[in-house]
Specification:
- A hairpin with a 6-residue loop joins β5 and β6 (about 60).
- This protein is mainly β.
- It is built from no helices and 11 strands.
- Strands 2, 4, 5, 6, 9, 10 and 11 form a 7-stranded mixed sheet that branches.
- It is globular and about 40 Å long.
Length: about 120
């Protein structure tokens, strides 16, 4: 069992930056592919960025490429999402998730553990 706790969300204006953090409970954090997902109001959950176990491989949704960066610190059992040039359409609840798949998966069903989510609201 892995417990994930997100932090760093908030209300910002368009063009601002935020950094989300997700702390994992287990020392085996480095065995998991990690992903950040978001769910806008009334819409389905979508992958924003995923990172492999060592942090050497990443994948991003087209809508955030060049603006968002996912990274991880295995010594701190933490994954981050740096979000720059935020837009109102980035407004959503953001979740981090852990997968035992061993590959850079972007489907929510392939993730085994989820955090409780953190709200990000971007005003125009």
């Amino acid at each position: 069992q892995v417990q994930l706790v997100e932090s760093g969300g908030g209300l910002v204006q368009a063009g601002a930056s935020l950094r989300l953090s997700c702390a994992a409970s287990r020392h085996t954090f480095s065995f998991y592919v990690m992903g950040w997902f978001r769910q806008p109001p009334g819409k389905e959950r979508e992958a924003v960025g995923v990172i492999n176990e060592s942090g050497t491989g990443t994948n991003y949704a087209d809508s955030v490429k060049g603006r968002f960066t996912i990274s991880r610190d295995n010594a701190k059992n933490t994954v981050y999402l740096e979000m720059n040039s935020l837009k109102p359409e980035d407004t959503a609840v953001y979740y981090c998730a852990a997968s035992r798949s061993g590959v850079l998966v972007t489907t929510a069903a392939q993730y085994d553990y989820w955090g409780q989510g953190t709200q990000v609201t971007v005003s125009s």
